[in-house]
């Protein structure tokens, strides 16, 4: 499909340009980063997110636990409760897909010029019947980051999600640039793309803006808003993410 290949080429070109050109990392953005939680420390996010389409609104609220288990190794567990309010379907609430993951950074900026990490993530069946997926899936991504002094940073990458139903497999990629506006405030912009999956959802491309405010060393406020620029009615008229981050 020439048109789809062209879109992928454009997205890939933007990603390469961002990584070569001029730090929030990971949340609140959809794209992740290669920096693991510091060894022996915790990062705990209490979050809410959601997406509105022509069919209605769906999202999750929950807790995202991250622990620095060893040098360059982060262990992650996400416990979400999902909700949906679809046209003609009423409001539904249930347990979402529990996520288990491990991030391992195997290249460092000091030695290689960029940080590089893998972050495989497994999604367990939700069991709710109406919220989330009722089968196992696995995301296999790679993430890259380059910092430019203390103010500018860029990170991104992507990977593919493999489902128990092969026809539902899809891939995604994204790139983020962040800037330290004030000592306690960072902002950033993101370009993100996901291929179509088998549930009738077409490919999507979106742009988003995120921010992080450090109340102090232990408490942080994160926010993010995103808008689709490709097939927006079906995939993302608008979406959001809000979180209180506890670090210790």
From TrEMBL:
What's in the keyword line of the UniProt record? Signal
Pfam families, sorted: Phenol_MetA_deg
Q: Which InterPro entries does this one have? A: FApF (IPR025737)
Q: Where does the signal peptide begin and end? A: 1-25
Q: What is this protein called?
A: Outer membrane beta-barrel porin/alpha-amylase
Q: What is the protein's species of origin?
A: Bradyrhizobium macuxiense
